[in-house]
Amino acid sequence: MSAETRKAGSRKVDAVIFDLDGLILDTERIAKRFWLMAFKEFGVVLTDEQYLGIVGRNVRDSNMVLRNLLGDDFPVEECRARMRETYYEDIARNGLPVKPGVHELVDFLKMKSLRYAVATSTARDITMRKLELTNLVSSFETVVAGDEVSHGKPHPEIFLKAAALLDAQPRAVVVLEDSFSGIRAAKAAGMIPIMVPDLAQPTEEIQSLAYAVVSTLSEAKEIIEEILGRTTKDYSHGPNT
């Protein structure tokens, strides 16, 4: 997919915020496989649409989604513990795949003197373990994790906190996301959302919120280059006008 849904206009860019799973790391399909195995052990079969309801959300919010879906009596914590047990056994054995273009994009941001961070719904300890396993800790020194905010995506808090740590105004921040909740959060934060789809292609709603939808991080890099070079009207007036 080439760049889609790009809106007229742009603005100054000082920083870039990355999601982690499904954006930096090619982990969403792995996680889905072990989630569905765990659900099956507990006598539940989820549709793809139902599963997407927990993608990109922190533990608290995804637990709430699952209880609303499966009932208050469903042992969510036990199911999550089983998923984590098998998931981490797998990544300890097989490692974690990094998405193509990550290193090149980070090098580009350094060259352009742009600040950047990770903002993920995943808890801090798990996030750091994943970055260590993939030798990315030194690449992403600024990290905001899902257990460090009061409200998870699609609430904008996590992105606003990351922007503050980067000393960047929200309107001057590009957010790279693969999930619907992440794109909604970036838009609510007043930032520039770029979607790189992973498990699901964007709906019409998500396309209307995204500055662009691209297939790869290499294409995302091209969009950032384009934004940096444009001086047309402010993007805040662009998407729905």
TrEMBL record:
It comes from the Bacteria. Pfam families: HAD_2 (PF13419). Signal peptide: none annotated. InterPro entries: HAD-like_sf, HAD-SF_hydro_IA, HAD_2, HAD_sf, PGP-like_dom2. This is HAD family phosphatase. It comes from Abyssobacteria bacterium (strain SURF_5). SUPFAM superfamilies: HAD-like (SSF56784).
